[in-house]
Specification:
Layout (H helix, E strand, L loop, with lengths): L3 H9 L9 H9 L2 E5 L4 E3 L7 E7 L2 E5 L2 E5 L4 E2 L1 H6 L6 E4 L3 E7 H9 L2 H26 L1
Antiparallel strand pairs: 1-8, 2-7, 3-6, 3-8, 4-5, 4-7
Helix pairs in contact: 1-2
Amino acid sequence: MTTKKAGIALLKGVPMFADLSQAELSAVWASFKVVQHKAGEVVLAEGRGGSGFHMIVTGEAKVTRKRTKVVLGPGKFFGELSMIDQGPRSASVTALTDLETAMIDRFEFKLLIDHNPKIAWKLIVHLSTRLREEQSAADGLTS
């Protein structure tokens, strides 16, 4: 089982949590639960609804979106958009190995940000940056 110290260290690597204080990171970690996934298990399916954010603690996962495949390992994360808007998943994620993720669902996340607006602001900044990057990439494809 992942320790609080290890979980907080992983959270520091997530852009939307990186600038939080130790006490804030501790509060965030307390809202997560650790989930085990077997190798080959589909963690998220593209196009399906979702409401959870996952951060990889141990193991590797394959993210598949259209024809693109990316392998993620410890400290990497996925599901933040659907956690917020409950929209369809933009990619599928499959455990390549036995996989341990720390997960927070929409309900727990909403409670967390209701009590800590700084976390909400960091998330807005992170998502804005991500949107700009996506727009820049799309502009490069159409130019």
